[in-house]
TrEMBL record:
Residues 117-126 have a biased composition (Polar residues). Residues 152-161, 216-237 have a biased composition (Low complexity). Residues 491-583 form the Glycosyltransferase 61 catalytic domain. It is found in: Golgi apparatus membrane. The lineage of its organism: Eukaryota, Viridiplantae, Streptophyta, Embryophyta, Tracheophyta. Residues 100-116, 165-175 have a biased composition (Basic and acidic residues). The chain crosses the membrane at residues 37-55. InterPro entries: Glyco_transf_61_cat (IPR049625), Glycosyltransferase_61 (IPR007657). Pathway: Glycan metabolism. It is a single-pass type II membrane protein. It comes from the Eukaryota. It comes from Urochloa decumbens. This is Glycosyltransferase 61 catalytic domain-containing protein. Residues 88-200, 213-240 are annotated as: Disordered.
Length: 680
């Protein structure tokens, strides 16, 4: 520090010339004015004095924090230190309090981590705070006047807080004492909760003291934030920070507002609310295993859990889980025939009875365990009839099993090898596993889910509103065409019989498949019908059908329309391309109700349905009975005598001789529909 001489001259400490004498140096000093020299001495004395008292005061506070002082003495110690140098002490305390916040959080995480529990605030927590740093933090917290901490006044004013309440309560932003101690920070920092403070409960502190001892030597850089107890007796949760970026504990000069804001933005992430899962999910309330009332066609059962199927004794058993009570499990026993004709004794008398039960005692031990569900059903009843094979087994099997995409086992009671062989492509498309002959299976097969009896809506019909995945009859026909590898999905232009594998080969005329029955309800004037259909514009194919499904399915898929007297042959409309025509000829005898077996389903498949009801003159019954016979005049009376009477009179003894002049308009409607569909 240089000063001017009296009116100018050289600087007093000049080393420009080498070899100056001592006399010149004394002369330079003598030129300094006494008044200025005295002021310099006073200024230097003041600087040394301030430095001395600042150092002594900080050491006193540091020693106080390191020593085990009582709660009553904490406040007086900090207050006395503050009286010595008010403005500077506020600054120092602000820096220390910020560090205290970080160390309290570090202590909390050490406890949680050592106990094997996960901190609810995530993984950004501080680690390994020493116990003496924790005590130093509590000294400042006790003096903060924030309604919580270790001070005796706070414990007296809020006994509930000392008891360790759990509800989270935010710290008061407008606390006057906190504002006097802490340096000003930005609003964003305050919003992140960096000024919250508090203490843990007595039990936790005792554990921490044991944990902190071996960790105190390696924890100088840890940091976190502790929460504050509120006046209603609740204790806030701990908010953690990353210790790697927060300031070191010995830093006494607080950062500027901009720096504090950056630290707050970077290191105090939002803490999501952690919802603890229930320790035990309530078990589902028990419901009966079987349903005998909701479906008029079939009784069915559904079992979930430890299900054991023993085919040799026709039993399906659900075993009670450990700890089951009367609310979640009950012992039951049901006798079920898994075939969808429960109201028809003729169909049901050959169906094997299965025992479906739930037990809490001993059960047969598992010999095979399966990780796929199982379906139990019968293939007997009327399934020998082509129509009933579809409506009683194949369609319900699709409706029940298709949702599993092949991962389901089929357990068949009343197993008929010839029948399974006839429809084997269907079973292979439904399941990735071979069908099981349940009646002759000695093994105890164990599953997690078993359904006894197939889902069934109505004869040859699916209700998409109740079907799994919203399945419909359109889905069923697509499935059947894919099962047998049929190329045509849409009617006309048709693929010729000789080019069934070539989807591009087509005929200039739509094809009509005429079902020629072999025994009853035959067309007795088939040749006349063929000529009449050809005159209208059809190419006609006549077939009686075959035992094998695949050849007839391929033939039906080459045609755009199918025609026949009411009977099982019309079931092959499932293979006719979508948009085709179905013509059902209804015999004499008030058989409109049985015609519904094909009326609704054909429309659901996307076909145009046409129905032709014959007159007495078109029935061969006119050759057997006089015109005024009851069979013509009172078909309802014949029907009232039962199904056998109806079947004998109108189904088994009647053939059809179509009046082509009367029938021709029906053929014209059919070909008109196909032409219109092709044009569109």
């Amino acid at each position: 520090m240089g000063m001017d001489g009296g009116g100018g001259g050289k600087l007093p400490y000049s080393y420009a010339g080498v070899g100056h004498s001592d006399g010149k140096l004394v002369k330079s000093f003598s030129r300094v004015e006494p008044r200025k020299f005295g002021m310099g001495l006073v200024a230097g004395f003041l600087l040394v004095t301030c430095a001395y008292f600042s150092t002594a005061k900080f050491d006193a506070i540091h020693i106080a924090m390191m020593s085990p002082i009582s709660k009553d003495g904490i406040g007086s110690l900090v207050s006395g230190a503050a009286d010595t140098s008010n403005s500077k002490q506020k600054l120092d305390l602000g820096a220390q309090d910020r560090n205290a916040l970080s160390k309290e959080g570090s202590k909390a995480e050490v406890l949680e981590k050592d106990d094997g529990n996960t901190s609810p605030s995530g993984t950004d927590s501080g680690r390994n705070a020493p116990l003496e740093d924790t005590m130093r933090d509590e000294t400042f917290v006790g003096d903060s006047g924030d309604g919580g901490g270790v001070g005796a006044s706070s414990a007296a004013a809020n006994p509930a807080a000392a008891g360790g309440g759990r509800d989270e309560v935010p710290a008061k932003d407008d606390d006057a004492t906190t504002a006097a101690v802490l340096p000003p920070v930005s609003s964003e920092e305050a919003g992140n909760g960096t000024q919250e403070s508090g203490v843990l409960e007595d039990e936790e502190l005792q554990v921490q003291e044991e944990i902190a001892k071996p960790l105190s030597k390696s924890s100088n850089g840890s940091a976190a934030a502790a929460s504050t107890s509120s006046g209603n007796g609740s204790s806030a949760s701990v908010v953690h920070s990353d210790p790697a970026v927060l300031p070191a504990p010995v830093q006494q000069i607080p950062p500027t507002t901009k720096e504090v804001k950056a630290v707050a933005d970077q290191q105090i992430p939002a803490v999501p609310e952690v919802k603890q899962a229930d320790s035990a999910t309530p078990a589902r309330e028990w419901k009966p295993l079987c349903d005998l009332t909701s479906n008029r066609r079939i009784d069915w059962c559904e079992l979930d859990g430890d299900v054991r199927v023993l085919g040799a004794n026709a039993s399906v058993t659900l075993v009670a889980p450990p700890g089951a009570d009367e609310r979640t499990f009950r012992e039951e026993s049901w006798r079920i025939k898994p075939y969808p004709r429960k109201a028809d004794p003729n169909a049901m008398h050959k169906i094997r009875v299965l025992t479906v039960q739930s037990v809490t005692g001993d059960a047969p031990a598992c010999t095979e365990r399966h990780d796929v569900p199982a379906l139990v059903f019968s293939d007997r009843g009327y399934s020998g009839n082509y129509f009933h094979a579809y409506t009683d087994v194949i369609l319900p099997l699709f409706l029940t099993a298709r949702q599993y995409a092949g991962e389901v086992m089929l357990l068949v009671t009343d197993f008929q090898m010839w029948w399974i062989g006839k429809y084997l492509p269907v079973f292979k498309s439904i399941s990735n596993y071979e069908p099981v002959d349940l009646d002759n299976d000695p093994r105890v097969r164990c599953f997690r889910h078993v359904q006894v009896g197939l889902t069934n809506h109505d004869d040859f019909s699916i209700d998409p509103r109740r079907a799994p995945n919203g399945y419909s009859m359109l889905d069923f026909t697509k499935f059947m065409r894919a099962t047998y590898g049929l190329p045509r999905d849409v009617a006309w232009p048709a693929v010729t019989a000789g080019a069934a594998t070539n989807a591009t080969a087509s005929s200039s005329k739509p094809r009509l498949l005429l079902i020629a029955r072999a025994r009853t309800r035959r067309f007795v004037n088939t040749e006349e019908i063929v000529r009449g259909a050809e005159k209208v514009g059809f190419e006609v194919v006549v077939s009686e059908g075959e035992h094998e499904v695949a050849p007839f399915a391929e033939l039906a898929n080459t045609c755009d329309a199918i025609m026949g007297v009411h009977g099982a042959g019309l079931t092959n409309m499932v293979f006719v391309p979508t948009g085709g025509v179905v013509i059902q000829v209804v015999p004499l005898g008030g058989l409109e109700f049985v015609a519904s077996y094909f009326r609704g389903p054909s429309r659901d498949m996307g076909h145009r349905y046409l129905e032709y009801r014959i007159t007495p003159e078109e029935s061969t019954l006119i050759d057997q009975f006089p015109r005024d016979h009851v069979i013509f005049t009172d078909p309802e009376g014949v029907k009232s005598k039962g199904w056998d009477s109806l079947k004998d009179a109108y189904l088994d003894k009647q053939d059809v001789r179509l009046n082509m002049k009367r029938f021709r308009p029906t053929l014209k409607k059919a070909i008109s529909h196909l032409r219109k569909a092709k044009a569109n």
